[in-house]
Automatic annotation (TrEMBL):
It comes from Cricetulus griseus. Its EC number is 2.5.1.18. Keywords: Acetylation, Endoplasmic reticulum, Membrane, Mitochondrion, Mitochondrion outer membrane, Transferase, Transmembrane, Transmembrane helix. The lineage of its organism: Eukaryota, Metazoa, Chordata, Craniata, Vertebrata. Its main location: endoplasmic reticulum. It is an enzyme of class 2 (transferase). It is found in: Endoplasmic reticulum membrane; Mitochondrion outer membrane. It comes from the Eukaryota. The keyword Acetylation applies. This is Microsomal glutathione S-transferase 1. SUPFAM superfamilies: MAPEG domain-like.
Length: 155
């Protein structure tokens, strides 16, 4: 069984931890960006959130949807759908002993693709910008899963 010192000496795992921190921080930023859009535009999803802006029927006018808020929210949901699998598969991949340069390529492409995807979503850039960024990140996660299963398959 590996102790913490051995894990700390695993360069691939430390690289993964660095890039995972970047995408998790970006994902956390997206929830703050959604909240910012809601507050700035006074658009809320829940009745209790409107209470500070009015009472009764007056408060209900703040209970609606807005394309700006929904765009940020959808970008955040897309992060959740893609970053969570990357974290699980990336951790297992990192512990499977891959080559450092190959692992770094995977991590860097994924992080770059997720950042570009967010920019393409929020700007919004014309398609296929967002789709290409999505598939680049998705492809990285699939590549790590394939390499992991190919080298460490115990079925």
């Amino acid at each position: 069984m590996a102790d913490l010192h051995q894990l700390k000496d695993n360069e691939v795992l430390m690289a993964f931890a660095s890039y995972a921190t970047i995408v998790l921080t970006k994902m956390m930023f997206m929830s703050s960006a959604t909240a910012f859009q809601r507050l700035t535009n006074k658009i809320f999803a829940n009745p209790e959130d409107c209470a500070g802006f009015g009472k009764g029927e007056n408060a209900k006018k703040f209970l609606r949807t807005d394309e700006k808020v929904e765009r940020v929210r959808r970008a955040h949901l897309n992060d959740i759908e893609n970053i969570v699998p990357f974290l699980g598969i990336g951790l297992l991949y990192s512990l499977s002993g891959p080559d450092l340069s190959t692992a770094l390529m995977h991590f860097r492409i994924f992080v770059g693709a997720r950042i570009y995807h967010t920019i393409a979503y929020l700007t919004p850039l014309p398609q296929p910008n967002r789709a290409l960024a999505f598939f680049a990140g998705y492809g990285v996660t699939l590549s790590m899963a394939y390499r992991l299963l190919k080298s460490r398959l115990y079925l």
